[in-house]
Write a structure and sequence with these properties.
The chain is of the alpha/beta class. Helices cover 33% and strands 27% of the residues. The chain has two domains: 158 residues, P-loop containing nucleotide triphosphate hydrolases (Rossmann fold, 3-Layer(aba) Sandwich), CATH 3.40.50.300; 59 residues, no CATH class.
Length: 246
């Protein structure tokens, strides 16, 4: 499969100090790649760099074979790269319908939202600040999906959600890739959940790749994944990620 998104020896960080080093991965259309690791491993830093919110320190990021380094985030969004941040990016005072108005969702797109997330259908007049955590995450995903993204970056989709809600949302990632033909790069703390829907996975430890392979192979290497989350897997020691995220 031809990669839609490629990270080639990417180095990224803050104030000239690298948090992520020599990271290479690719995601093809219709694939889900999980980026795993403990807090401070550099996962959120990676997504922020791919979406143009941070400047890369070295390496390259390519969309359909062309470098996108230096492109503004709004240009990348127009090019089909959507980023669902860990804070969900919603405006608390706006209703569900007003959020959809902002992204110019038409009748067909709204019908698609109702089909994908039926729990949102009766909540059009409710302000997003009054939604439950699961409903907020559904809305954040819906706002990305109605833009018909070619690449979707999802950061900590299940953060703060009850296990039963997290378990119901994770399969949506697989459906997005299969039905929309979207390339999905997902950061997720619940490795056991996301590995059930991912095609491949990359485990970061201290900003470097400690383990990479098919989701099934990574799932089998339970000890390495656990060690990565405890910060003791191979991958080189470095300073913790100074970013507010992961």
């Amino acid at each position: 499969m031809t990669p839609r998104l490629e990270l080639d020896a990417l180095a990224a960080g803050y104030g000239g100090s690298a948090v992520v080093r020599d990271l290479s991965l690719d995601v093809a259309a219709g694939q889900v790649v999980a980026l795993l690791g403990a807090n401070g491993a550099g996962k959120t830093t990676t997504l922020l760099t791919v979406s143009g919110l941070l400047q890369a320190l070295a390496g390259d990021v390519r969309l359909d074979g062309r470098s996108i380094l230096g492109r503004a985030p709004d240009r990348l969004a127009r090019d089909g790269l959507c980023h669902v941040p860990d804070d969900r990016g919603l405006i608390p005072g706006l209703t569900v319908s007003e959020h959809l108005d902002l992204v110019r969702a038409g009748r067909a797109e709204r019908a698609q939202v109702d089909e994908w997330f039926p729990a949102l259908a009766p909540l059009g007049a409710r302000r997003s600040g009054l939604l439950s955590g699961g409903e907020q995450q559904m809305l954040a995903l819906a706002l990305a999906l109605v833009r018909h993204p070619r690449v979707l970056l999802i950061d900590e989709m299940t953060m703060g959600l009850a296990p039963i809600v997290a378990g119901s949302l994770i399969p949506v990632i697989r459906r997005i890739a299969d039905e929309e033909g979207c390339a999905v790069l997902v950061v997720e703390q619940h490795a056991d959940l996301v590995l059930t829907v991912a095609d491949r996975a990359v485990l970061l430890v201290h900003g470097e790749v400690a383990l990479s392979g098919t989701a099934e192979a990574v799932r089998r290497d339970h000890d390495a994944v656990v060690a990565g989350y405890l910060g003791s897997a191979a991958g080189g020691a470095s300073a913790p990620d100074p970013s507010p995220g992961t």
